[in-house]
Amino acid sequence: MKSNRSATAPALRLVDAESPAEADAPEPSSRGAQDAEALLEDDVDVDVDVGGEFGDDLEEALTAAAERAAAGELDPATEDALRQWLQRRLSAYLKAGHRARIIFTDNVHTMLSVKRGQGVYTLRMHRMFAAAPPAVLRAVARYAQSQDRDAGVLLRRYIDGNEHLIRDAERPRSQQLDTQGAHFNLQELFDDLNARYFGGTIEAKITWGPRTRRKPGRESIKLGSYSIEERLIRVHPVLDAVDVPRFFVEWIIYHEMLHEVHDMPIVDGRRVYHTPEFRRAEALFDRYAEAVLWERTQVHKLLDR
Asked: What is the sign, positive or negative, of the torsion defined by CA atoms of 251, 33, 92, 12?
C-alpha cells in the first residue's frame, strides 16, 4: 500500500515466498525499516495478557504507547513489546496455522507490504499502523490472505487519514561500495546466494570492509557484519585471499544475509542476534559442515594478516 505522495498508483504488494515465479519479482526498497522484529512460536488469542509490558491499565497504556509509536517517539524496548502485541492480535485474525510478523518502517512511499511464505505473513508497515483500531487490523489480515477489495478500500482510507504521520526521511548518504577483490567479487557471490536461498528478496548491499592494518596481539577477528540502519553487509578483506575457499566466503555472506530476514528480539534489555530459528536457518547452507570445520581449523591463520 503506497502513500499518495508516490507517483506510482497505490497498491498493496503481496509476494508469495513459496512461489518461485512470484519470488523472482523484486520488492521495492523499504528504506528505514526497523528489523527488530520477533516471530511468535505459539498460537495465541486476541485477548493476550501483556500487562507486564504496559502496566496495569492495559487499554490506556496500549493506546498511549501506540500513539507514541506512530509518531516514532517510543524507546526501542517498549516499541518492540508493542510490536509483538500487534503480531499476536494479527495472528489471531489469520487462518489456523498461520502467524503474522511485523516490521515497523518510516517509509514515505510504501505504507504496507506483505510477503507470504511457510505459514508466516511478513508485514512491513508504517508506524502509523501501531495505533490502528481492530477493524483496520482485521482488514490487514483479510488483505494479506485474500487481497480482499473492501479491506483494501478501508486500508486506503486509514492511510489517507494518517498522512500527517508520514515524515520525509533524511536523504541517506551515498554508500561507496567496494565489491571487486583480488580473488572474489562479493556482488557476484551475493547475487548467487540471493537467488539460491532467498528467491532474490534480500535488499541489502554488500562491500568489502576497510582495509586496515591488523592490531598486534589480535586473538579474534570479525569476518562479517550487517548494519540494520544502512542495510549493508561488510566482509573483512582478509578473506580475499587465494587460500580461502569460495564456500567459506559464501558462508560468511549467507550468515549476514540471514540477519535481514530473521528476528532480533530484545531480551532482558539486550538484543539477541542469533536466535534458535536463526541457527536452524544457518544449517540450511549446503556446505555448512565444511564451513564450520574450516573456521575452527583454519581461521587462526587469518589473525596474522
From this structure: negative
Q: Where are the alpha helices (DSSP H) in the chain?
A: 20-23, 51-54, 58-70, 76-93, 134-146, 149-161, 186-198, 246-261, 276-282, 288-298
Does domain 186-304 sit in CATH 3.30.2010.10? yes
The 8-class DSSP code of residue 180 comes to B
Q: Which three cell numbers stand for residue 148?
A: 480482499
For residues 95, 99, 104, 110, the Cα torsion angle rounded to the nearest 10 degrees is -50
Q: What is the pTM of this model?
A: 0.47
- Average pLDDT rounded to a whole number, residues 78-102: 85
Sequence letter at residue 203: E
Q: What sign does the dihedral 119-21-105-188 (CA atoms) show?
A: positive
pLDDT tens track for 104-122: 887 777 888 888 877 888 8
Domain with CATH 3.30.2010.10 in the chain: 186-304
